[in-house]
Design goal:
Helix content: 55-70%
Pfam families: AA_permease_2
Subcellular location: Cell membrane
Keywords: Cell membrane, Membrane, Symport, Transmembrane, Transmembrane helix, Transport
Protein name: Polyamine transporter PUT1
Structural class: mainly alpha
Order of helices and strands: HHHHHHHHHHHHHHHHH
Organism: Urochloa decumbens
Number of helices: 17
Number of strands: 0
Radius of gyration: 22 Å
Strand content: under 5%
Length: 497
């Protein structure tokens, strides 16, 4: 992990900078959050290598990687209309970014710039609560990211079925499509975040462009009274899960913070840009389609945006949106695999898991073992029910976010002098920070409360796995049967403060 450079330059040039904490030499000496973590501890060559890797992600590609970590376009938002009608879907996508996306992205910006190393939220929780809590966090979030990525090859196949029926059903055509999609995009991840990031830019433009056309074509046909339509039987559980699935993940970029160029400036600006693009990218197409098409809420199943576009402008736009949905699935998968892989690499750099997962490929400098493992796990989960994946990953994500918010508050209270190149503007003390976290925490509890017993049982199983992994790794470390990294500053590098 590298420390952020001169704070005054960040504050002067960043439009989103707010109230950076001054660096105090006396706090740096004992502050574990600023201990360097390198691929070869104590080696200047390792530090130089890390410095080169930090230049891979600049503002524009990072913005679109975050966009695909969270949204990827309005594809998948249709069940919100089905669950509550146009009124509640529009209200949800209007309000939810303010009560969830903005607080989550602000917390991510502060902690990522204070500790700009791979592993993200695992690093924060490790610093606040120690290695066991961090191991649990890593297990929850990795399972969430890898299983979540598995949904996108299946979605790609579903969208492709609309154009090529041969890949439909459970036959060999669908399986071949899923495997080819998985392998091709996993291989792309080996080339580095620079390539993946610019690919995300191209995929983002391709995924959003048909909706720009649809909004323009729908404008003369919009009847505002249609926005007040509600479903006869409202499915609040489906509505909450749809909003949560489509607008969570703003903290996922933190696992790649060690690869970001000038993170103190780039991360906050990219998060703000991605929140704006993602929120508008949901709201305007929903307003256009629900206002221009006189369809009952029950018609709004998965993929209905394409049908609505066909009614608004013709079949050509319907096919364009279906093609955009397939490209969006590719961007979502690439971003999810990258985030999960760099989470593993960060955990290995911290000594939580074997150092093999931090090993870098000689040509591209990417964590090849972590990428391979993540691609293989995602491929295995690709044949699981999509609805099951959404429910379990939402619950695991909720567990991780509660721990993440707790780490944010703990570090604000116990390490107020820790240098923060970006600081959430909450005022003095921890009361303001607690207020920022209150609404997201309440929403997390609401989403988790409506989960069925099967989801709770699966999440409990993953939690048990996290505890077992922690003690199994401790045993392996004690016996020396597996090689672990030793970050500078002690066995764990970032112990309990």
């Amino acid at each position: 992990m590298t420390t952020q450079g001169t704070q005054s330059s960040d504050k002067a040039s960043s439009p989103v900078h707010s109230d950076a904490s001054p660096a105090k030499p006396e706090t740096l000496a004992g502050d574990a959050t600023h201990l360097p973590v390198t691929t070869s501890p104590g080696s200047s060559a390792g530090q130089e290598e890390r410095g080169r890797r930090n230049k891979q992600l600049t503002l524009f590609p990072l913005t679109f990687l975050i966009f695909f970590e969270v949204a990827g376009g309005p594809y998948g938002a249709e069940p919100a209309v089905q669950a509550g009608g146009a009124l509640f879907a529009l209200l949800g996508f209007l309000v939810f970014p303010f009560i969830w996306a903005v607080p989550e992205s602000l917390v991510t910006a502060e902690l990522s710039t204070a500790m700009p190393g791979n592993g993200g939220y695992v690093l924060w929780v490790h610093t606040a609560f120690g290695p066991l809590a961090a191991s649990l966090m890593g297990t929850w979030k990795y399972a969430c990211a890898a299983a979540g990525a598995a949904a996108f090859p299946a979605l790609f196949s579903d969208y492709l079925t609309r154009v090529f029926p041969a890949v439909s059903g459970s036959g060999g055509g669908r399986a071949a499509t899923i495997v080819t999609f998985n392998v091709a995009l996993t291989l792309l991840s080996y080339t580095g975040l620079g390539v993946v990031g610019w690919a995300a830019v191209a995929l983002g433009v391709a995924a959003l462009s048909p909706f720009v056309v649809m909004v323009a074509a729908a404008a003369p046909k919009v009847r505002p009274r249609r926005w007040g339509t509600t479903a006869r039987v409202k499915d609040w559980k489906l509505l909450l899960n749809t909003l949560f699935w489509n607008l969570n993940g703003w903290d996922s970029v933190s696992t790649m913070a060690g690869e970001v160029d000038r993170p103190g400036k780039t991360l906050p600006a990219a998060l703000v840009s991605a929140v704006c693009i993602g929120s508008v990218g949901y709201l305007l197409p929903l307003m256009a389609a629900t206002g221009a098409v006189d369809a009952p809420p029950e018609a709004w199943g998965d993929g209905y945006f394409a049908d609505a576009a066909g009614l608004i402008a013709g079949k050509w736009l319907k096919y364009w949106i279906e093609a955009g949905a397939a490209l969006s699935s590719a961007g979502l998968y690439s971003a999810s695999v990258s985030s999960a892989a760099y989470l593993l690499a960060g955990m290995a750099e911290l000594g939580h898991i074997p150092s093999l997962f931090a090993a870098r490929a000689p040509v591209f400098g990417t964590p090849w073992a972590s990428i391979t493992a993540t691609g293989a796990i995602a491929l295995g989960f690709s044949f699981v029910s999509f609805d099951s994946i959404v429910a379990v990953t939402n619950f695991l994500y909720g567990l991780g976010m509660i721990l993440e918010l707790a780490a944010f508050l703990w570090l604000r209270a116990r390490r107020p002098g820790m240098p923060r190149p970006y600081r959430v503007p909450t005022g003095a003390g921890t009361a303001g920070a607690a207020a920022v976290c209150a609404v997201p925490a309440a929403f997390l509890v609401a989403v988790m409360a409506v989960a069925g017993w099967e989801v709770c049982a699966a999440s409990a199983g993953f939690t048990v796995v996290g505890v077992v992994v922690y003690y199994a790794m401790a045993l392996c470390r004690a016996r020396g049967c597996v090689k672990f990294g030793r970050p500078e500053g002690g066995e764990w590098g970032l112990g309990r403060l």
